[in-house]
Amino acid sequence: MKISFKNDYSEGCHPKILEALMATNLEQQDGYGLDEYSLKAKQIIVDKLQSPASKVFFVSGGTQANLVAISSFLKPYQSVISAETGHIFDNETGAIEATGHKVNPARSVNGKLTKETVQEVLDAHQIIPHQLMPKVVYISNATEIGTVYNASELKELYEYCQSKHLYLYMDGARLGQAIMSASNDLKFDDLAKYTDAFYLGATKNGGLIGEAIVINNPALHEGFDFVLKQKGALLSKGRLLGLQFLTLFEGDLFFELAKVANDHARMISKAFKENGCKFWAETQSNQIFPILDNDKIEVLAKDFDFYVWRKLDNDQSAIRIITSWATKEENLEKFVVKVNELK
Amino acid sequence: MKISFKNDYSEGCHPKILEALMATNLEQQDGYGLDEYSLKAKQIIVDKLQSPASKVFFVSGGTQANLVAISSFLKPYQSVISAETGHIFDNETGAIEATGHKVNPARSVNGKLTKETVQEVLDAHQIIPHQLMPKVVYISNATEIGTVYNASELKELYEYCQSKHLYLYMDGARLGQAIMSASNDLKFDDLAKYTDAFYLGATKNGGLIGEAIVINNPALHEGFDFVLKQKGALLSKGRLLGLQFLTLFEGDLFFELAKVANDHARMISKAFKENGCKFWAETQSNQIFPILDNDKIEVLAKDFDFYVWRKLDNDQSAIRIITSWATKEENLEKFVVKVNELK
Amino acid sequence: MKISFKNDYSEGCHPKILEALMATNLEQQDGYGLDEYSLKAKQIIVDKLQSPASKVFFVSGGTQANLVAISSFLKPYQSVISAETGHIFDNETGAIEATGHKVNPARSVNGKLTKETVQEVLDAHQIIPHQLMPKVVYISNATEIGTVYNASELKELYEYCQSKHLYLYMDGARLGQAIMSASNDLKFDDLAKYTDAFYLGATKNGGLIGEAIVINNPALHEGFDFVLKQKGALLSKGRLLGLQFLTLFEGDLFFELAKVANDHARMISKAFKENGCKFWAETQSNQIFPILDNDKIEVLAKDFDFYVWRKLDNDQSAIRIITSWATKEENLEKFVVKVNELK
Amino acid sequence: MKISFKNDYSEGCHPKILEALMATNLEQQDGYGLDEYSLKAKQIIVDKLQSPASKVFFVSGGTQANLVAISSFLKPYQSVISAETGHIFDNETGAIEATGHKVNPARSVNGKLTKETVQEVLDAHQIIPHQLMPKVVYISNATEIGTVYNASELKELYEYCQSKHLYLYMDGARLGQAIMSASNDLKFDDLAKYTDAFYLGATKNGGLIGEAIVINNPALHEGFDFVLKQKGALLSKGRLLGLQFLTLFEGDLFFELAKVANDHARMISKAFKENGCKFWAETQSNQIFPILDNDKIEVLAKDFDFYVWRKLDNDQSAIRIITSWATKEENLEKFVVKVNELK
């Protein structure tokens, strides 16, 4: 059995979550998110955001979070702008379009949107009513290529969106890792200040399943619980989600685990760098994209699982390595040894 | 804190499931349902159904199972027939309509559809192309009022559907309880013989979350995995679902738990009956609908949680009591004592 | 060739419309409803309604008008209430559901909704968020069985809707005939006072094609032109619609033609009545539903085309006879002669 | 009043159509496309295509034709490939996405798709089931920039689609003009051989409104009439459409009018060319895209209406000039005189 660096959802969850599930298992709790653990976890998240007007909704996965949120925020004639590399544009099987809405691709810079690239889309949508009205700007943080938005980038984009009457929505499948990026100055409560809504991923950062949708803009609260139920996202045993987020957020576990994932990534990135390797995208969170000769990729692939991400030419490709809180130290070391042998 | 008989999802899951999660927690497994536990659980279900051509897909909830399945089976101009008491008609926030399809209400007999009541809908849909073409017949087993389909009822309905080129789809949120109903002769492998597709509920019968969609008719297999992903139903950590179904189905745990739930219900039903109580619907599975004077309902409500289901007149209402595998014996006894005191 | 009383769209249009088309045919006009005829016709309709805040949009058919309007007015989790006999519930091939919204059937009284029957639907939708939020009340005037809303009925229903935060929308495929019903006191400008939106049908009252959607409530104006285009309802040669409505509304032609249709219907209704015939629904506009012995239906069917509407028992059925402005006097006379011979 | 070259729908229809409407106006005809004129027109089209298995459906506009056809052809998890310049990608207000389907943009070559550019999209959709399955290839002929597919280009693309199990669908808003292009060898009956379905536009070539959807592939026939009604595309007075297509196709009027439009365009194109003008796209049908200095555009704009299509740099832009069968000779001459004065 190979050691896998394919993704950050290969293992189960942090042991404390299983302990919490066991400790409370036979208690009777109300269903549909009205259990005491969900209520408490939501309050803690709102408190840590210092945003009492925000509302929190737990769902089971990222595609679900995106489709529920975006379809709830848009009117029939409105669309969502995404980086051409954005997860909703190309990796969620048309989930947004299946709710009736177009995803407008925008040029991305290091996987990120800027006010300039969003403005390009607006400029190209001036023929009324023959073109859709873009209304939501979708960004991922960390992005699909592991880069992160710093505080000033996010603030600038949000202020631009405000000025254009656009909603800014952040896909936070790896938001913990983005926040804890060594190169980042974005703070957790900035998310309430500089987005209209975002989701916070637990699946890839310590949870078994679960994402927390946080809606900061009160104009987007109305009817959200109906849409959750309508799209099949309202779990009857909401306690499963509540207990996970409670475990991750009542202390700092969520942030600590993300930091571990990033530290692991930096260790691997450093090994490649010291061996003269170039990168397809900068290592800012827990994804690493080294560029390797194909024969060296084959050597690595004997013992390790990972994706070959982009064929760059006939000789070289970028591979994707992902680390997590659960990556075992001994496996990291084995990998680094093998990287050193590639020279 | 009152003792709750409001539903069968107030507690967590059977302890063996938590044990299995703990035992395998830090193993690396492939994502999106390709983990070894999901694969094994699916094979066991297919084996127990004696239906090698059937395919199994795990999802996280019942509304999700229904909307994924029905929207996958229908063409844009086709509709689904449901009992007017059916869960998809009135309790899933328009989930089916949100996928673009009408739910045609049919008259129900004890919560069940018959070939006669389905035929009434077909007879009323003869104006082509001004009316939709009904194509799927949706039934719940156990039904929303706790009644069950026996083998001959199901067989007759299925053969009728075959003759009319209709697909028969069964919502099995409480399918274990239906199968294990004392009054029932339906066997597990009849589900493969007499339905085109069905789902098998774990959430209300020992699981933490999870429903298994089983598609028997190969004509309905194509593209199903795409639709799962598109509707946000494909969990990255599919192991969570796989391990639960494996635990429930590798032995007979699933059936044993359902039997316990039904036994609990019969105990309560007997108490009401011995006290001269009438019932709004016959107790065939784990739901009990005794009819009580309003003042007696108030007495019961002091110590117990349950729903007042239907106001019958100014003096009387039917209440709904639900039991499960997790109902504690001591709570059952307390409840029976209180029922005896109502006289 | 039989004489047809099957519907009020068997003939073309009033000759003045063809004259207007010919007179303006080779003029250059702007497209998409910005031609001078559309603009002028819209202004005239708004003026006659004495409702300067209303906006008018022309579309080509009734199902299109309904689906554009209702899908534009509803949020994803909202539904529309219709009489169980309503056209959108059963005769438009699931057009509303195809836009993602459920149609909630309500009990009807003489084909009409009342505040009591709407309230019944609201009462049955109290389980939040497991049931949809009804938001639009759809009525047809004249109804599908030819009855009409008088001023006080409409006012009462509208005020009730206001009090419940519901929008009242009227399908006016035969609105001219309803307004001109001999038994009616509803005035044209009442439509602006007592509905949030309605559509006004030309196809069945003098036009070649065309319905005018009038939106009185400014809260429903936003984005409507986008939705028109999105649903394929915005004609590039909008002049075709504009010229028709201009011809029908610059004088009183629209109302005169409706009166003729109703007069024709009364003439036929009278003939049946004088021959001792009973009616399945009262003749208030241009639809007549006499109840006849099946052998007499066969006699009539030798020379005339009409629908057998409802089988009442083994011996009797209700037939539907429809008249229009275009029904020829000689055909009316032939029909009356034949009715008199039925005795 | 300026002379307009903005589009080919500024005028009404060919006078023969109005004559046909007048001559048949008060005849009684069956509704919903069952009138004798629609039936006859459909038969003539099928005969001219030499394709007895093809079925023809009349609708009122191009966006409507596209959304009805594409949503009928696709399963929920399938998408349609369009040139990035394709009308459905950017000029129909998300009409396709509103039916639940993504439009995948493909690189275009002179506004056209080739097997290479379609293959690029397929290559980028290999992650199953996380990406959609492209199933329909949408092309426009003439394209949105006036270029046309010749017989070998269309044949090659069709055969490629066959080999990849893709349906080829052609938007023929200006199909007459494409067929009659002086540079083209495509014959009318090639459309039945080399497409699975297409639509044939009358609105921009002699009709008042109306497009004829022709479905050659019998696998795509099923249920199409239901979808027409569901999307609001089935006119009750179908005679309006039938009579137009009968007038255009019982002789060669449709083709003659298209030839006139193209001849007019060549006359204008020649004038620009002789004045040393370059073109943004080659003039192959009735659209001309000359590149002009901005001050010269201003001069032209004093007397003529047209669109400035693309700003090329600070000094120059491409304008769009469209001619039609209805363009008056005197206006053409005035325009050519003005072009000659630009030097």
Automatic annotation (TrEMBL), chains A, B, C, D:
Q: Which residues form the signal peptide?
A: none
Q: Which InterPro entries match?
A: ArAA_b-elim_lyase/Thr_aldolase, PyrdxlP-dep_Trfase, PyrdxlP-dep_Trfase_major, PyrdxlP-dep_Trfase_small
* Location of the Aromatic amino acid beta-eliminating lyase/threonine aldolase domain: 16-289
Q: What is this protein called?
A: Threonine aldolase
Question: Which SUPFAM superfamilies does this one have?
Answer: PLP-dependent transferases
What PANTHER family does this protein's entry cite?
L-THREONINE ALDOLASE-RELATED, LOW SPECIFICITY L-THREONINE ALDOLASE
What is an annotated GO biological process for this record, any one? amino acid metabolic process
Gene Ontology molecular functions: threonine aldolase activity
Query: Would you identify the family this protein belongs to, as annotated?
Result: Belongs to the threonine aldolase family.
Entry's EC annotation:
4.1.2.5
Into which EC class is this enzyme placed?
lyase
Which cofactors are reported in the record for this sequence?
A: pyridoxal 5'-phosphate
Annotated organism of origin: Aureibacter tunicatorum
Q: Keywords assigned by UniProt?
A: Lyase, Pyridoxal phosphate
